[in-house]
Amino acid sequence: MEFDLSWILFGLPLAFGLGWLASRMDLRQLRLENRQTPKAYFKGLNHLLNEQQDQAIDAFIEAVQHDPDTSELHFALGNLFRRRGEYERAVRVHQHLLSRGDLTQADRDRAQHALALDYLKAGLLDRAEEALNKLDGTAHETQAHLALLSIYERSRDWAKASAIAQKLSDAGQGSFQGRQAHYLCEQAQALDLNNNASEVVALLKQAIDAAPQAARARMALAHAYEQTHRAPEAYTTLEALAQQVPSAWPLLAPKLASLAQSLHCIDHALGLLQNAYAKTASLDVLNAIVSLHAAQGESDTSHWYAQHLEREPSLVAATQWIANEKFEHEQFHPQVQRALERAAKPLQRYRCAACGFEATQHFWQCPGCQAWDSYPARRVEEL
Prior knowledge:
Elements: H1 6-49, H2 53-66, H3 71-83, H4 87-99, H5 105-122, H6 125-133, H7 141-154, H8 158-170, H9 177-189, H10 197-210, H11 215-227, H12 231-244, H13 249-263, H14 266-279, H15 283-295, H16 302-311, H17 315-322, H18 333-344, E1 350-351, E2 358-359
Antiparallel strand pairs: 1-2
Helix pairs in contact: 1-2, 2-3, 3-4, 3-5, 4-5, 5-6, 6-7, 7-8, 8-9, 9-10, 10-11, 11-12, 12-13, 13-14, 13-15, 14-15, 16-17, 17-18
């Protein structure tokens, strides 16, 4: 049987043509797929920039389905879930990333940091702490330490907070002396003063050494001395505070006046208070001055508030002055007094300089935003 070479002549071009056509179809399909993934991704970014988070999530999910191996898409989707408060879904995305064996070390560290933030935002502090501790020695170490500091402050674990603050300070991330002093004060405050007086005093002295310009430690030390029947030391501690931190006068003036009466050194205290008031007219300082004059037998002290009004317009001072004045129609005095006291009450609060949270008492750490030393010593009316 003879072999017909014509089939080869016709078959080779046909096979070549079919192969070329198939390759073109595969190439077109590949190009199409490569176009679809970025298109969905950039579509998601566009929605995100327009604050259309629902549409952005849909676009990123579409992009992940087209290219499930692209880590950037997973990071974008996980972070978007966290921003929306869908912490469980964010955790699943970042855990999936960590389970992959093809991630670079940099991306693995990034996923670990993202997972820690998921837990932190969800309020799962134990899990967040565990995840953050795994970031030591990585590019995310500083952010991890700052997050751990926040966790330990929220959980009031002052010893761990102090250790992390020291690491941050050693790494050149700023001065944490003020916070270290607060941590020592918090530890002292947690102790029973009656049974641990020497330890409390030691902690507060450490706090003063850590931050000599901070008022809290000396205020707390004066209180500890007073409560343990060491009034002279309490008085000299407040006197030292006034010299070191003059801005603290409105906070220390009432206690200084009280100690002066018990120690029979009213004239000395009056000299200190009047000198401070002459420099900065504070009603808290004036009230301390008035209390000492009253203790010396002065019956009419309203003129002190009248003099203050000549220097500073103050509704609070006006209220205190009117309380001791006689009206032509005295029957209306109580109603007027109540109205003034009600109007003046909000002006006697303290206000956080960081978030604006107002309180009737002075705080060393804001209950609202958790910032330290954000409350000025002066009240709202005097700011």
